Structures are given as structure tokens and as C-alpha cells.
Amino acid sequence: MNIFGSPEHKEEGPAPGAAIRLNQAHPGVAQTPWGSILVIFMRVLAGLWICQGLAEWALVLVPSQPVFDTLPGAVSAAVIFFAIADLVAAVGLWLATPWGGALWLFAASSQIFVAMTIRNAIAIVWVAADVILIAAYFVLTFKASEQREP
């Protein structure tokens, strides 16, 4: 009993507001590793997006030649946008939060859009990688959500 006379409740596992909940047992549900695989995928993706964001900041802060004088205005705007969006998305992915996945999907979709609308702004290899990663994210998210359903 606590000081108010009510019994104390001790919860096992992570706090109710924790950002990541792994291996929580659900009665009547067979445990599969899809949730863990999704979190690992998001962490690897976060590392990749941190590298991308830092590369964009390197273009802004330590250019080998004046970047904003030589690039068209749309490409300069894309560099600044992705320098910010990639790092924020990477933090959300690392925390495995729903907003991180949504922001990453927005950033990856934006890369595809910029690559298709502005020539030579983003390599076509990144477009292919984005499409594959988005598909993998949707498959893993679907599989992880299936394991939570009773």
C-alpha cells in the first residue's frame, strides 16, 4: 500500500510512454521477430540518413567551390531542405517512432520527386534505393502489425 491507502501497481516492462517496446508478450498471439526486424531496419536506415544529411551539410558548410553561386536556385533549395529533413527523419527513425517513419517517407518521396523534376539534382541510384527501401519499410511494417493483432 502507498501513502494514500491504495495498493501499489508495479508494471513490468517498459514505461507506458516509452518510444520503443520490444518483445512484449500478448496473450494468445504467437511471437514472431517482425517487430525487432523493423526496429533494426529503422536503425540501419537512420544511420544511412544521418550520413546523407551530413553530406548535405558538408555541401553547405565546407564547399570545395561556391555551391550556391554555381547551382541553380531549385537545386540550392533542395540541398538546404534535405540537409534539415534527412537529419530530423534520421532521429525519428532511430527512436522507432511513428512520426519518424512518416517523416522519412516524406523525405524519401521528396528525393524521388526532386530527382524526377530537376535534372542532375539527385542520382538515379538514390531513386532506385529509395523505392526499394520504401517497399521494404511497408512490408516490415505490415508484418510487424500482423504480430500485434490477436
| N-to-C span | 34 Å
State the order of secondary-structure elements, H for helix, E for strand: HHHHH
Structural class by SSE content: mainly alpha
The dominant shape is elongated
Helix share bin: 55-70%
Number of strands: 0
Number of helices, counting only DSSP H or I runs of 4 residues or more: 5
Strand content is under 5%
Main sheet: strands, sense, barrel: none
Uncertain regions: pLDDT < 50 for 5+ in a row? none
Q: Total domains, how many? A: 1
Specify Rg, calculated over alpha carbons.
21 Å
Mean pLDDT across every amino acid position: 79
What can you tell me about this protein's structure?
With 150 residues, the protein is an all-alpha fold. It has one domain. Helices cover 66% and strands 0% of the residues. The chain is built from five helices and no strands. α1 packs antiparallel against α3, α1 packs antiparallel against α5 and α4 packs antiparallel against α5. The radius of gyration is 21 Å and the shape is elongated. 17% of the residues are buried.
Question: What's this model, at a glance?
Answer:
By secondary structure, the chain is an all-alpha fold. It contains 5 helices and no strands.
What is the topology?
Layout: H1 34-61, H2 67-70, H3 73-94, H4 98-117, H5 124-148
Name its key features.
150 residues, mainly alpha, 5 helices, 0% strand, elongated
